[in-house]
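Quick one: structure for this chain?
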Amino acid sequence: MKIINARTGNLQEIPFALGEKGRGRWLEEVKVSNRPGQAPTGPDDVSFFVFGQDRKHVILTNRDEKRGILLRVNTSGVYTKGSCGSVALKGGKATLLTEGSWAEGDAGRVADGPDQLWHVEGPCLFSVVLQGGEYKGMGHRYLIVTRSLGTVMIKRAELCQLIATDENPEVTEVAKMFASELHEDVQQALRLAEELEEQMETPQAEVTHFSGEYRSIEEVVKGFGLAIPAAMGDKVKGVSSVQSGTLLPGSKALVALEIGPSGGKRYRFEKISETGLARVKESCERPYNRESVLAIVEDANWHSAWIDYKDGEPTAYVIANAGGIHSFTPNPEWGDPIRTQAWAGVAAVTPAEAEFRRVFNLGNGATKTGGNADAGGGFDSPFAKLRDQRW
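Got it. Here's what it folds into:
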């Protein structure tokens, strides 16, 4: 029988201690037998016996009459006032053998939690709360012991993805066994997995996605933490929506957009309009100058439009659509006023200048007059007029 540390999934070194010593705490030592011939050879081949009445103690031996695994569950995490740890058995055959406790503060009143040793005899589900919030990388976890006595400690969102993609069938099996004890979003992932299983034999629609030259749509999807279901294989095909952090097969394309000029505080962008897209993920490098977006195309005539600024003055009017990402500078110092960056594998189709003037309400006047450069960049009033309207 093995003894496993649930936090790492690796073997627990022996001997060891549960909890810590001090006021408001309890240190429980788990020792190995010192009787001749009874000491275990290592953490991968142990047995145990329990003694004590009010408080139980455990001695590790090399007797092999017991089945299952020994599982250490320590809830100590990151110092956070009032954040306590907990362990709850939700389903399966497991017995709490002994435990210690940790605490924060001189008297142990700031926060506390258990450090436990369990004997697990088969598939089990635990609900564990680690000290510290989700924003500190701690908080709630599911601890799953599979039929082969493997262990997985996992966040809810990660468990939803794992179930939906059938990445680990043994974990999914245990989740189904104790489905009634799981949160609603995990139960929804189980229902989704059944639907995806039915679609495995159905040919998936091939569509053209819209992504840049340097990052494939698969890299963008994974970068946003979304999972690609087994029904799609290694390549993202047509999608319909996103559920449980997983793409659902369908007939729609995805768009990966980078909105804004990036750079420091001298740069920012302003959203003007966006149609025909259903955003599924978005993140900001900085809230004012860069936004990464993953969206589903709901209309073939989709577009997203924004204005890039530097030092408070517009530098480019930008339209992204199925024909590419197009930038319009009414008075360029050199080259064409319209520049187009094509999507990977998609032929570019550049819109006319009139389309920019319509979308950004620039009017139909001359684009260059030699006016006040500070007020409008050295051309007729579109910049200044837009600035006065929006600021």
